[in-house]
Protein: RelA/SpoT domain-containing protein
Amino acid sequence: MEREKLLEEYESNIDLFRELATSMDSLVNILLSSSAIKPHSVTCRVKERSSLAKKIDKKDKYQDISEVTDIVGLRIISNYSDEVDEIAKIIESEFCIDSSNSIDKRAALDPDRFGYLSLHYVVSLKPERSCLVEYRRFKEIKFEIQIRSILQHTWAEIEHDIGYKSKIEVPKPIRRKFSRLAGLLELADDQFVQIRDDLNEYEKTVQTTIKTTPEKIGIDTISIYEYANNSGVVKEIDMDVAKLANLKLKPLDKDDASRHVKYLQFFGVESISDLENELSKNKEYILKRAQDIEGDNQTVSSGISIFYLHQILAAKTLDRTEILGFLNKMSLSLEEDRESFAEYLSNLI
Structure:
């Protein structure tokens, strides 16, 4: 078909292409949300007329606009490289795959080439979905889905910005730098996966280790989260605090746990064993602090005893200036109230 006729066909269907892009963006988000994978982003686009014109001129093979399979494109960016294959399984199970036009550019990458590429699918809706009224108008329309990790995406975007598409276009003195950088990005992708897996494994084992060898567990968000929600010592003091201050308790979330970390480290509490010792040693003062609270039946997180422990550790310095420095550094209480709060804590012990 002549170039202008193809472009006219594109223009006459542009609204349909835009609707397809929006609808498929929504569908892919729904499909991914039903899995355990949380992608970094899902974006869609419709190819611009000028870009289509260049493609037609370059390929010189299209007889019908339906043969151009990337007018509508979706890009799924994962946080981790191993999620690319997990997302690919979902795409393969939910769409008809045009195998002849789909390519895993990761597998196609020559060992001696620089470049950090992605998984490209050309797909269409399965019959059971395209028969639904909301998708019927998209029946048999092909579109592209690209899947890549966020680091793969970073490479591709910078490479595109630089303007070189193959190694032979790059001046020889610069080619080695490209290769080294591609290797670093690939290593970084692998290491992020390893770090994620190590953290997941740590989460699984930390609760048991806290019970057996608490001195080996440092103060971090995960250990505080597990300790505050499961420790008998914390539970006992928390319940006493809640009774004295008229408070209700709920499980601690990880955002609150992360705040405890910086407070405890300020006072040199480095392990769960240290924390438990400080709680037991300062229970009397924690409860004394709770007596001055008018909770009015408010709900607070488990680990409220740890929160008051920070204040007791500040109070035990017996130095109003140092107490005020702690309150300022940690942004505790309203700024205009910190002077009077420091005065209160300095007289608490």
Remarks:
- The chain has a mean pLDDT of 89.
- Residues 311 and 345 are 7 Å apart (CA to CA).
- Residues 213-346 form one domain.
- The longest strand covers residues 72-78.
